[in-house]
Automatic annotation (TrEMBL):
Catalytic residues in the record: S373, K416
Reactions the enzyme catalyzes: Hydrolysis of proteins in presence of ATP
PANTHER family: ATP DEPENDENT LON PROTEASE FAMILY MEMBER
Protein name: endopeptidase La
Origin superkingdom: Bacteria
Coiled-coil annotated residue ranges, if any: 246-273
EC code: 3.4.21.53
PROSITE patterns in UniProt: LON_PROTEOLYTIC (PS51786)
Family to which this protein belongs: Belongs to the peptidase S16 family.
Domain Lon proteolytic: 283-478
Amino acid sequence: MRPNPIPTIKLAPTFPAVTFPAVAATHPLLLGQTRLLSAFDTQTALPKQGLYIADFASIARRLLVRTLADYQQQSYQFLYGRISRAQLFGSATQVSPLAAPGLLFIDIEALLTRPNLWEALLDAMLHDGFTQQQQWHTLKARIILIGHSGYYSELLQAERCFQALFPLYGEVNDEIEAEPHLDNYVSWLQALAHEVNATLTQSALQPLLRYSCELSDHQQRLSLASQPFLQLLTEAAAIANGSAIAAEHIQQARQQRRQRHNAQEQLSAQNVDDAFIHLPTSGETIGQICGLTVIDSGDYMYGEPARITASVHYGDGEVADIERKSELGGNIHAKGMMILSSCLYRIFGRDAPLHLSANIVFEQSYQEIDGDSASLAEYCCLISAITEQPINQGIAITGALDQFGNVQAIGGVNEKIEGFFNLCARRGLTGEQGVIIPRSNVQQLNLPDAIVSAVAEGKFHLFEISHVDDAMELLMNRETGKADEADNFPEDSLYGLVQLRLDGLAGNNDEDISPWFTRLLRKLKLVRY
């Protein structure tokens, strides 16, 4: 088994030539919102029932509210930020929006910061009205709460009357399939450009579609996160300086944004280039491998290679996680280490305990590490240390293991590949460097043109795998081997070398140095042992 090289056509999403639709779509900004519109239309028939709209962080909420009001051609008010009692219930000089016909959208997070207002709203809905300035006011507005889905779940548990008052729930969709919706998605992009008083040229569509796939983290899905698009189009329009937005304006806006946010990434790269951080990308080493991590600062993500090492010695079978013992490893990383140990025991410890202990660590790591995406690299590193077979340092690897050795998907695959590629490119591409990723992550690839070109020219390589054995055979240039009926592996295979080392630690390979007479008695079965 060997990893399969990933063809260049799979390294980034591709789209057919798209054009602007001749007829504009109706309500283009509500593309893909079938669930939401179903709940919204249901509330029209049941105006006394409250509606909860669950959106997500990257949605332009005020734009969504206005679009929904336009969809039903109704007046609306949207309360958000620091909501006062007068804003919600009115005053001597201000009419309460609760007592006015139309749609009343309320930011649930803002409302919950004012417990008295929240309780008063629930009471008004229970009694279908409220008293203000010694006068009774009947509820006339359709009340719609909008916020994260987590608040809805919490309120169902915490507020006894919440489910009765807000039985309708509409979830905002954050992505759609690309192929059947491509033309409508172009209308969606046009509508967003119109919101920032800009127009798009034909050339701007392809980079915008690739950016959409980047946000959705999938080659065949398009993001409906309107806020990042509005910001990108606003910056691109400023660069265009009054002219229509073209591809170069999109690319320049994205490049400028990266430069504004990548100070930490540049500092990390400088530490590696100055040899403060030891990260070899050539040669072979026993018990050492290049893993891949992702640093997420909230508004910017980048990949950072990490050197992982393993050492083994006689012991009681424990695979020690130094990160965990030093309180620098998170719970998910600890889980990955336990699965790694289980995978090892599944093959070599089914009938007897392992007389081996190991230590695995992320070298020169001074911050907390979490996630299980390094478990594949850690397993390969451990096998290298046991068999004393060197690992190719020019190939980095990422993937999560299960107990049967299957390699599972991980997050941040594009950032991880780009981080290692940039390191190799600064040192000079040799044509022997590359990255191993899980096969299930190939559909998420959205790599820069520089990496796609390097792979096409054979200067850099990308491999997809589905089982840990595939990775080890490439990294150590030796077959893992297949067990016979007695569960013994060929002696010259990787797993055969593991068995040989484990037998040695257990004392099974020691020569019999007892006196000849004792050996004779053993043969005659006169001595028990």
